[in-house]
Amino acid sequence: AGFFALGPYLALREWRPTAPAEAPEGLAKSLESKVTAAVLLASALGLAAYALQLPALLSGGDWSAELGAQVQTFAGLFDTSALAHVSTLDLSILSVMFPFTAIEDMQRRGWYQNGDLRDKATVALFSVPVVGPCAYLLLRPPLPGN
């Protein structure tokens, strides 16, 4: 789905810093679930650990050599595979766009008050690709009135 699907929506939608009056139902209700957020965060952390070769590190393997080999393999794929190239660009663009949607959602939930350093640091922390948005879903407060 990525940015190529979400880009037009993100570009054309209107900013709504206040929450809708009605309670979420259906898919929206399941996306508000802390269980869903916990599963997403656990999956993201598992993938990150696998990508960083954490099992090799824990078993005493040469972590830096493994990581260097992985980076070289990825660089080769990025240069030769359209799928790897487009997927990387897609993730990069979505990661850059996330803070804008996070700020709007944080305002709806009363979590982003005045844009001070604490608010900006919170947004930056949750903008770490893949893991950050999953952690945000788990830690964000509920919408007012829900």
Name the features.
146 residues
Return the average pLDDT rounded to an integer: 86
Shape: globular
Characterize the main sheet.
Answer: none
> Structural class, judged by helices and strands?
mainly alpha
- SS elements, strand count: 0
List the helices and strands and how they pair.
Elements: H1 2-12, H2 27-31, H3 34-51, H4 54-58, H5 63-80, H6 82-108, H7 117-126, H8 131-139
Helix pairs in contact: 1-6, 3-8, 5-6
Describe this structure in words.
The protein has 146 residues and is mostly helical. It is built from 8 helices and no strands.
Could you write a compact summary of the structure shown?
The protein is an all-alpha fold and 146 residues long. The chain has helices spanning 2-12, 27-31, 34-51, 54-58, 63-80, 82-108, 117-126, 131-139. It is globular and about 55 Å long.
